[in-house]
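This protein record is not my work; I was only asked to verify it. The record follows directly below this note.
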Amino acid sequence: MRLTRPDVRRLSAILALALGLGSSSAQAQATSPLEVQGPWVRATVKGQQATGMFATLTAPQGGTLVGARSPVAGTVEVHEMKMDGDVMRMRAVPRLPLPAGTAVALKPGSYHVMLMGLKQALPSGSTVPVTLVVEDAQRKQRTVDLQVPVRQQAPAAKADAAGGSGHDHDHGQGHGEHKH
């Protein structure tokens, strides 16, 4: 088989493209600011205005979760739920520290990403695009784009890591105080 000069150029371009994509992909994986395990969004019904996203986050080099966004919600915030006496309170958290190499669980009844002002129902079995914003020690912000599966409850195999404790908090219409 004889290769002409145009054939050699095309072959060289294809080879360079393949090698370039492979190295940049490997580099992106090696320098990713965040590992995300077991992400899921709680399914909603028509008219429901809010829901939560849950996952286990690990920042290999450390960092801070400083925000999130999704086209399915008007507002996306990192929230914390904790007991205040006998009342469960939820509040926005502007910065969630992610210590280097330490898994941080986003789970029902604790830290989670709150999607509010939903623009549509999120049925079980669908996926939701969510972008997490992570800041490193030099205050450089990087984004992590996810396609998050929508489920009725935490995946069974990841129940403990992703927050399937059996204690369910409704992220329906309201938020703020939950009496127990």
Summary: The helical segments are 5-30, 159-162.
